[in-house]
Amino acid sequence: MTDFLKILSYDIEFAETLYKNPLLKTFSNIQKFSNKLDQENKNIKSTYIKSYKEILFCFYTKDEVFTKLEILFKPHYYFNDNLHNANDFTALDCIKTLTEIKNTFKFPASELYILNLEFGLNAISPIDIRDLISCAIYHEKNEFINSSDSLRFSKISFKHHKDGKANKYKQIKFYAKGFQFSQYVDNNTFRFEVKSKESKYIKTLGIKTYADLLKVETYKTLADVIRLEFKKVLILDITSKVQNLTNKEHFKLNEYLNTIKWIKSLQCSRNLFSKHKIDYFRLLDKTKNNIHSKLNFIIDEKLNELLKPCAISTPKKIVKLCAISDVYIIGNCTLNNIKKCSVTGLDLSKEKEGSKYIKTTTLKYLREFDKKRFAEVCSLLLNNSKPYHTKYESDIISHLYKQVRNRFYNSNQIKNIGYKSKVYHNQLSLRV
């Protein structure tokens, strides 16, 4: 349900400890996150920025002393290996994801304050998604306008300050998620989302700190807010039939399907817009084809599913062992039940749960913190272990990752062809 969090900490000791954590990598301005979180970096004025699996850790200092820490995090993307946020993300999925990160970095949850919050759901539209988004014209009395994220059929609604700038207290976003991630979901999937960049509003949801996001009750509140906010949306129901209407009612309904009618109503008496909206819904109900009723039912059903205690389709196993501890010394662990790469024998503690072989995260870690072992991996996987021996890949990390992947999926073929690899006595050996 939660799609974006901005977290604040004034705990200097925690910031100092986190800054030294070897899991964090220095963030580069040219770095591209698949979840687009790197774009948030444009507005960050912190002294140092580090990242972990596309989570940004922004350290602020004054006179070389830490003053505060901000953490930017997209839980739904993280849950999907930062590929997309198009599937269902249940309340328990969210809690487990947030708990995993809390345990990994030993977050003082009750001392981490929530500054920004985005939450919502994905559901399938009963009509063509292009018609749905195009015909959504108001949330309350705030007009839906094209959002600035360059997505097709994407709208946002908010109040304006007197100077014309967007009010960040509460914003509503409504867009075609299926067009954004057609490879993962039905093209007619929409996303309805509530956003806030002010803690004043977030506190009204019962959310003050990270610890509040670990409570099931919080997500029941968020679900109620989504239901309430969607009921305030006005959609021009161009799919509605005219059956059961008199000629006069038919004429009036056609008037309501004209955006000019609503623009003028906002310029007249204070309550005229609301009166028109009630009458418009009455006419749609009479036709037995009210898009609002259909969508409210779909959203209510989806929220009930997301809140179910057993709503997780693939329960995650126990949080990865040794992921936050120094007991892991590359390839050797004080615990015996650590999963290892089926190709290289290296531990998988730095990879996602369920990984079968090491990927770029582990390889980058080795290159930075265990150069000797990294050199061994190069010698074992590459015909020529010179640093930039990458004919078809952009860098050596990509080359190594593809060698591991190919050996995992094509072990028999590799056995037949053979590799020019060196063998080290009592050191790393490939399991092919």
Describe the model:
The protein is of the alpha+beta class and 432 residues long. It folds into three domains: 2-233, no CATH class; 244-288; 328-417, no CATH class. It is 35% helix and 18% strand. The chain is built from 15 helices and 15 strands. The strands form three sheets. A ten-stranded antiparallel beta sheet has the order 2-3-4-5-1-6-12-11-10-9. The chain has a three-stranded antiparallel beta sheet with strand order 8-7-13. β7 (136-139) and β8 (142-143) form a beta hairpin. The longest helix is centred in the last third of the chain and has 17 residues, at 291-307. The protein is elongated. The two termini are 42 Å apart. 31% of the residues are buried.
Taken together, the total number of domains comes to: 3
Class by alpha and beta content? alpha+beta
What is the radius of gyration computed over CA atoms, rounded to a whole number of angstroms?
26 Å
Strand content: 15-25%
Which percent bin holds the helix content? 25-40%
Tell me, briefly, the overall form.
Answer: elongated
Reported for the largest beta sheet, the result is: 10 strands, antiparallel
